[in-house]
Amino acid sequence: xxxxxxxxxxxxxxxxxxxxxxxxxxxxxxxxxxxxxxxxxxxxxxxxxxxxxxxxxxxxxxxxxxxxxxxxxxxxxxxxxxxxxxxxxxxxxxxxxxxxxxxxxxxxxxxxxxxxxxxxxxxxxxxxxxxxxxxxxxxxxxxxxxxxxxxxxxxxxxxxxxxxxxxxxxxxxxxxxxxxxxxxxxxxxxxxxxxxxx
Length: 198
Ligand SMILES: Nc1ncnc2c1ncn2[C@@H]1O[C@H](COP(=O)(O)OP(=O)(O)OP(=O)(O)O)[C@@H](O)[C@H]1O
Ligand SMILES: [Mg+2]
Prior knowledge:
Blueprint: E1 3-9, H1 15-24, E2 28-31, H2 32-39, H3 46-54, H4 67-76, H5 78-106, E3 109-113, E4 128-133, H6 136-147, H7 151-159, H8 164-170, E5 173-176, H9 181-197
Parallel strand pairs: 1-3, 1-4, 2-3, 4-5
Helix pairs in contact: 2-5, 3-5, 4-5, 6-7
Bound molecules: adenosine-5'-triphosphate and magnesium ion.
């Protein structure tokens, strides 16, 4: 039997960094963002539907989705965000479940990065859920420097998500990434040991 750990948190809280730490320790990893990218890859039938719903500007010159344009559209407009989710989430979910089943058949420990784990109700796919947290100010600085956003734009993105406090309330485990890399890695190691013992 394989142990399946779901990882979520807010934008820029360090989910991908924590997943990379787990991978370093030998875990098999799956990213819902990667699955979403695959679902919306050039040539996928869903692109025609996105073009029809959101306009030709959401299609990039290479025929794939223009994530920047689509991101702007949906962050600015909750109704559009809901429309996008209705189109793509069922496809992402079904591909994600297939890939998770395959990995779990081959690996003892699988960790999955799922940014919308609670919002899209992925809880039941996992044996435990880990929320990666960082103080609001740190989260904001990271989003600003990594994505080149202004403070206001970063605040808006963070505010558009389910509050981190609500996610922490639903979590089985939490890791705080405020601090040096090494401290994060130690927490990951400790959690991995704990899960292996139980
Ligand atoms: N412990 C840490 N100390 C300093 N910086 C960190 C730490 N952990 C992560 N970071 C940095 O914070 C930024 C965001 O981290 P990461 O990409 O892992 O977040 P994320 O939660 O996966 O974000 P997203 O929601 O966009 O997928 C990265 O630039 C990363 O290098
Ligand atoms: Mg990430």
